[in-house]
Fold:
Amino acid sequence: MEVFKTKAALKAYLEPLKAAGKKIALVPTMGALHNGHISLIKLAQENADVIVCSIFVNPTQFTDPKDLEKYPRPIEHDLAMLNTAGCSAVFMPNVEEMYPEGAGENWHINLGNAEFLLEGAFRKGHYQGVTQIVKKLFDAVEPDVAMFGQKDYQQVLMIKNMLEHFKLPINIITCPIIREDDGLAMSSRNIHLSKTDRKNALVLSKSLQYVVDNFQSYSFDELVKQAKAFYNDLEGVELDYFTIAKGDTLQPAETKEEKSLVALVAAKVGATRLIDNMIIK
Ligand code: PAF
Structure:
């Protein structure tokens, strides 16, 4: 597995492969890899010949500097996991390489109304930061396909909107959420959960599953009310939102006949903020 720290070195590696007609996949990550990320690598291998995984903790998408500081960076472990998974190349630039003019570089694009909903309402500017770095990574790799996890449902939507904005010819593939045996969605942040938090964190997947299982039996309002009741009296758990939304715009769901519906949740469990979602249809 090749490891590159500069865009120039990565480009020199990719150029002959592209000239030989190889299909390139990009798997963008912030490291602290788990089996959810490895499932992205595996899916990439089914869809391309050369797999580039980027590891970059992107400062412009963090709204809380403390969150950025405490983001886990187990680089040796990450490289070992990627090597075992058969990843072709890792791109792990530093901040100066990605933001030569400093992390305050100007960037603002229209991502549509969904930018300001849900995660966007709790983390102002988050999706501008995400799309800014993903565009830079796309420019550095110029992949044919790029893989993203469904766990960050809204992020995938924002990246698709950014792609549309720049008319980039990249195929975005969304990988289903990978869960622990008891239902907890895998996340780099789970490492911060105490034993009690870990138990309490199951409320996210349980409340989502409840909505999926009972979708036909109650109105949207009733379903959301019942799902929110899962969080009552759970000490140390603070619900940010629980919603059932239209899958393509994230606007609140209006009718059950909608072609795509998704239930999404975010909650603080102890000091760790977790998100999760389940596609209803
Ligand atoms: O999902 C993530 O890990 C990040 O938001 C991404 C897409 C790598 C951009 O920094």
Observations:
- The chain has a mean pLDDT of 97.
- The CA atoms of residues 144 and 170 lie 5 Å apart.
- The beta strands are 2-4, 24-29, 50-55, 89-91, 145-149, 171-175, 237-246, 261-269, 272-279.
- The first strand starts at residue 2 and ends at 4.
